[in-house]
Design brief:
With about 70 residues, this protein is mostly helical. It has helices at about 15-30, 45-55. It comes from Bacillus capparidis.
Amino acid sequence: MNQLKGDWPCYDKVHSRWLDRIENCIESMRISPAYEVIPRKENSEADDLAKKSINQIYIKSRIKIEENIGDGEN
């Protein structure tokens, strides 16, 4: 979250690509997000997904995020 807010730099290449995608989507939607830290105890779903990612557990998505979101080609 601190990297999305611009408070911290991002040095990881993969993470940086995701941040770029998120920032492009935000820009294309012309929104100004407000970020708020939600404690793990109050957001068990996100905490579970983070733990699975760290442990390299495959997560099957129910939706597909298109690369061209917001560029007028949908």
